Automatic annotation (TrEMBL):
This is Phenylacetic acid degradation protein PaaD. Keywords: Hydrolase. The keyword Aminoacyl-tRNA synthetase does not apply. The keyword Hydrolase applies. CDD domains: PaaI_thioesterase. SUPFAM superfamilies: Thioesterase/thiol ester dehydrase-isomerase. PANTHER family: ACYL-COENZYME A THIOESTERASE PAAI. Residues 52-125 form the Thioesterase domain. Pfam families: 4HBT (PF03061). Belongs to the thioesterase PaaI family. One of its GO terms (molecular function) is acyl-CoA hydrolase activity. It comes from the Bacteria. It comes from Seohaeicola zhoushanensis.
Amino acid sequence: MTPQDRAEKSAEAMWATDSASKWLGMTLDAVGPGTAVMSFTVQEHHLNGHRICHGGYIFTLADSAFAFACNSYNQVTVAQSNSITYVSPGRPDERLTATATEVSKAGRSGIYDVAVTGEDGRTVALFRGLSRSLKGQNFEEDQ
């Protein structure tokens, strides 16, 4: 199995039970070893009192992309710590895209950066996630 095949099969297994991302209207647009791209369109129910996308939804989009990127090796991996910096607002009816990229993976620990961008290419938020691998696989595979 190629690393790309493994990443796609891991994503398929996770997506099958990822009720939260689906419920929020996210799509998994791409996945590869240590990478993932997810997006969603800002809808009325995502808006806060300033009529911009609530930061919690932006965080969730980034966190979901992070999860698919760090689980792309078919090893159950969870978040250990995350931080986010909001740069510009997500606007009503705008499609936001989160692109997760592996920065470092050593042993059971990983570091991933996620850039959330708007339709016009501007940076909406920058997220850094630290991961920790556990026992278990996302799908059964001989090792």
